[in-house]
Amino acid sequence: MNKKIHEIHADICKTLGNAKRIEILNALDNRELSVSELVDILDISPSNISQHLAIMRQKGILTARREGVNIYYKISNPKVSKACALMREVLLEQLEDGRKIAMKYLHVK
């Protein structure tokens, strides 16, 4: 594979490597929301949400449209949501495996 593709991939992963951005993506899963709606749902300050939205929009992860004074955001490609869901599944499986190992260890002692 081309090195440039790996660099771009790493850059996108770095962008997604932020808990607040993952929260925002989860809120936007299969729907479009305004900044004020995201603030209400996530209890994050408007300026903080706006910063994260701008970064994800710049990277092409989100798209935006203006309607009057409101700007509505949505995930640009449904595969982004699928990728996040897949990573969450992997995490939950790892946590479960770790729990099983810990329980086995605790029962041995």
Written overview of the protein:
The protein is an alpha+beta fold and 109 residues long. The chain has one domain: Winged helix-like DNA-binding domain superfamily/Winged helix DNA-binding domain (Arc Repressor Mutant, subunit A). It has 5 helices and 3 strands. It has a 3-stranded antiparallel beta sheet with strand order 1-3-2. Strand 2 (62-67) and strand 3 (70-75) form a beta hairpin. The radius of gyration is 18 Å and the shape is globular. The relative contact order is 0.12. The mean pLDDT is 92.
By secondary-structure content and strand pairing, the structural class works out as: alpha+beta
Report, as a whole number of angstroms, the end-to-end distance. 49 Å
User: At the fourth CATH level, what is the homologous superfamily?
Assistant: Winged helix-like DNA-binding domain superfamily/Winged helix DNA-binding domain
Using DSSP, what is the number of strands? 3
Low-confidence stretches: none
CATH class: Mainly Alpha
The assembly state of the depicted protein chains is single chain
Give the overall silhouette: globular
Strand content: 5-15%
Average pLDDT confidence is: 92
Helix content: 55-70%
Order of helices and strands: HHEHHEEH
Tally of distinct domains = 1
**SS field, number of helical segments:** 5
Q: Looking at CATH, which topology would you report?
A: Arc Repressor Mutant, subunit A
